[in-house]
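ok so i was messing around last nite and threw this chain in just to see what happens. nothing serious, just curious
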Amino acid sequence: MKLKRMILALALMAALLLSCGATAFADPSAFSLALLIGEKTVTVRAMLNEYPGNYYISLTDLSAGLDGTRCAFRFEYQNTPADGEFFTVNTRQSSGAWSGAGNATEDPWISSFVPFRNRIFVDGPEHRYYTYRDGRDLYMSLTDIQLMLDITAEFTEEGIRLYPDRPFRADLEELDRQGYFDAFSAVLVADADTGDILFSRNAGDPVPIASISKLMTYLLLAEGIQRGEISSYDSVGVSEKAAALSRGVDAMVTLYADQRYPYQDMLGAMLLASSNECALALAEHLCGSEEAFVERMNKRAGELGLETAHFYNPNGLPVYLQQALSTKVQNCMSAEDLFSLCSLLIHEHPELLNITRERYGSMPSLKYVTANSNALVFNLPGCNGLKTGSTNKAGSCLAASLPVSVNGETHTAVAIVLGSETAYGRNQAAEILLRAARDSWQEQGSFAPAKPEPSPSASPAPSASPAPTGKAG
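result:
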C-alpha cells in the first residue's frame, strides 16, 4: 500500500511540473545574440535565465569577441588531480582554440539545469560566480561579466553594447530609478567609521535576517570572553539538543553529545560555513541554555539601541512557537540596525575579521573543511566579511565589508542586502554597493553621496513661506 501511494504521489508531482508551463521549467537552450563592441558586431551564444532580459553569455564566445580590446581574455577549462575541475580567465591574452561543442550559430542544450557557483581563477585568484555550464564552457550573467572583467555594458537602440575601455561604475540612484533594488526587502551601504550613508532603501524596516543573526551571537561570545565567563581556549560540550540539530536538514557538521570540541573550531564553522548546530552549542556553552542566551541577545540589543532587533534563537533558523495555533517566527532586524551592529563589531572586535576574511576554513576536530559562504571574499579584492544568511522567508541575505584606503586613510564600507530571491542576486547587489562606495571614497574622499553644485546661472530661490513638513501625498 505504501508503495502504491508513493507511485501515485510521484505521478501527481510529475503532472504538476509538466503543467507549470515553459517559463519556469523550460530547458535552458542557447540562441545567437549580437553584441556591439566598438565598430564591430560579435555574435555569441546566450541564454535567458527564467525571465526575459536576464542574459547569460558564453564566456568562450565572449573571449573571442573581446580579442584585441583592453578586456581581452583567454578562457579555459582545467581539470587536475589535485584541484579537480575549474576554469581560468587570463586577461590581456588572446583567446585560444576551444575544443567544446558548437559555435554561435548552433542551438545546444545547456547541460546544467540550474546556476551553479563555479570556481573561476581570474589572473590567479579564485572567484566564485553562479553560471550555467555547457561541457567545458560557462554561461555567465551580463551583470557578473561586467563585475569580473571591470567593463561596462549598456542596452542601446542598436542592441547590447560593450565598452571594454570603460571600467564598471554604478550609479546607485539611477539603478534605483530603473527598479534594480525592487528585488530586495532592504539595502544599505554606509561608512562604518563615520556613519555616512551612501545609499539605502527600506533600511528602517525590520525584516528576517536568517543566519546573519550569528553576528549577534558572536558579539555575546566575544563579550563573554572579555568578562572571563568563557575562554577562546575552552573545549565546548554538546547537548542532546545541539547534537540532534546536527543530524537535521539544516545541519552543516556532525556533533556528538558525548564529545567536546575546541572553541575556535566551532566558531570557525559558525562563521564560515554558517553552522547552526555550532551556534547553538556555543550559546549553551556561554549561558547554559539556549533560552538564557536568547534572553541575553534581546537585552543586549536593547542596550545598543537596536530597536528593531528581536531574536528567537542564536542561529537564525525559523522557530515554531509552542501555542495552540502553529506560529513560525524568525529573527528580525532592520538594515540600519544591522549596519550599527556590524560597525560595532568592526571597531570593538576586529578579530572577527581574521575569520570572516578567509576564503577557506579547516576545523580538524570536526573533520570539516569549508569554503566561506560569502562569495565576495573571492570576487571583490579586499572584502573581509561579514556574514550570509538564507531562509525561505528571509530570502538570501548578506552583510559584507570592504576597507578602502586613500592617501593613508582607511575607512570601511558595509553593505547590507536583505530579502533577495537568490544567492547570486544577493552577491551581485552587495558587490555593486561596495564598489560604488569604494569609487565614491576614492573620487571624493567620502562615502556620502556627492551633492550637485548649484548652477552659476540659476536664479536665487524666492523667499516664500516655509515649506510644509511631513511627507507629500
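not much to say yet. Residues 25-168 form one domain.
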